[in-house]
């Protein structure tokens, strides 16, 4: 765990610092060249900054040991933070979408396409660099917070690439017989990009809420856990599992006749489940032999 914290915190800190730089630059640049698209990019980076600070807090709190006030720990903070991030990004996309549609209705919005193209190119390079670093860190740590941060930067990189392409087309449009249509390019880019990207944070929020309500874990993780249970050659009466934050929780009912071997079973499960990219938490329950005659079923 110390190794996880030692690598997770610097990665999230770097994300915060770079997001802050992009946020300030994007808002200032957007106001300077009168670009709604660059302002959207800057607003997204500002939200990313605030959410990255929230991730830093969550990374510190989620792994604190349980106590009397929190007898089961604080694992739920992690999906809660991810849900908040998803909702906040969704809100930015929706507000930007409505603003851009209003600008189109008002007859477009002129902007300096050349300077917008320059900013977008710089943004693409910076976002891809941070995304690549976080991708490498996520492979080392298997941290949901770093993965969520990585998704954020990937969205920003693709957004900046779309902006760069849009401004490049606007520059060409300004030099064509249809130059009068160039005023619609900036708000139209915002409509297309925000309308598309609103789906990504919605999925992020959905997955986080599933963890908060103790839904079944993702299919790949569930199947991996089921395979391990089969390797241990258990004959459980019932199995329930869920993932919350960095933990995979298994609640297993076994026949009372197996109670003598509970400790050995628990150790074997922990040893094998530790191979998964989560921290296992296993509960074994003794069920009377009469109850254990019921058909076994996965309830996960």
TrEMBL record:
Record domain Cation efflux protein transmembrane: where: 12-213
The record, for Gene3D superfamilies, names: Cation efflux protein transmembrane domain (1.20.1510.10)
SUPFAM superfamilies xrefs = Cation efflux protein transmembrane domain-like (SSF161111)
> Which keywords are on file for this protein?
Ion transport, Iron, Iron transport, Membrane, Transmembrane, Transmembrane helix, Transport, Zinc, Zinc transport
TM region(s), chain numbering: 12-32, 38-59, 80-105, 117-136, 157-175, 181-202
Region forming the signal peptide = none
Which GO CC annotations does the UniProt entry carry? plasma membrane
Membrane topology (UniProt) = Multi-pass membrane protein
State the Gene Ontology terms under molecular function.
Answer: cadmium ion transmembrane transporter activity; ferrous iron transmembrane transporter activity; zinc efflux antiporter activity
Q: Where in the cell is it found?
A: Membrane
A GO BP term here is:
intracellular zinc ion homeostasis
Top-rank taxon: Bacteria
Task: Give the UniProt family note.
Answer: Belongs to the cation diffusion facilitator (CDF) transporter (TC 2.A.4) family. FieF subfamily.
Which PANTHER family does this one have?
MITOCHONDRIAL METAL TRANSPORTER 1-RELATED
Q: What is this protein called?
A: Cation transporter
Organism encoding this protein: Halopseudomonas phragmitis
């Amino acid at each position: 765990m110390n190794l996880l914290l030692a690598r997770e915190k610097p990665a999230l800190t770097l994300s915060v610092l770079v997001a802050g730089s992009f946020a300030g630059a994007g808002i200032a640049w957007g106001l300077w060249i009168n670009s709604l698209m660059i302002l959207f990019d800057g607003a997204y980076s500002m939200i990313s900054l605030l959410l990255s600070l929230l991730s830093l807090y969550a990374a510190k709190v989620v792994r604190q040991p349980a106590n009397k006030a929190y007898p089961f720990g604080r694992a739920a903070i992690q999906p809660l933070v991810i849900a908040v991030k998803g909702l906040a990004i969704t809100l930015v996309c929706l507000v930007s979408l409505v603003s851009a549609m209003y600008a189109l209705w008002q007859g477009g919005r002129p902007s300096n396409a050349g300077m917008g193209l320059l900013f977008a190119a710089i943004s693409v390079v910076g976002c891809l660099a941070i995304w690549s670093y976080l991708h490498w860190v996520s492979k080392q740590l298997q941290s949901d917070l770093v993965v969520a941060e990585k998704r954020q930067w990937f969205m920003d990189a693709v957004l900046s690439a779309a902006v760069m392409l849009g401004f490049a087309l606007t520059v060409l449009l300004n030099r064509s017989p249809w130059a009068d249509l160039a005023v619609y390019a900036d708000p139209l880019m915002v409509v297309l990009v925000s309308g598309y990207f609103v789906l990504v944070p919605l999925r992020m929020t959905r997955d986080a809420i599933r963890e908060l309500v103790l839904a079944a874990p993702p299919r790949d993780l569930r199947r991996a856990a089921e395979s391990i249970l089969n390797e241990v050659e258990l004959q459980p009466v019932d199995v329930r599992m869920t993932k919350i934050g960095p933990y995979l929780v298994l609640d297993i009912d076994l026949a009372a006749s197996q109670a003598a071997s509970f400790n050995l079973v628990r150790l074997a499960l922990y040893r094998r489940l530790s191979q998964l990219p989560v921290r296992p938490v296993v509960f074994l329950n003794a069920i009377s032999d009469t109850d254990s005659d019921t058909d076994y079923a996965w309830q996960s």
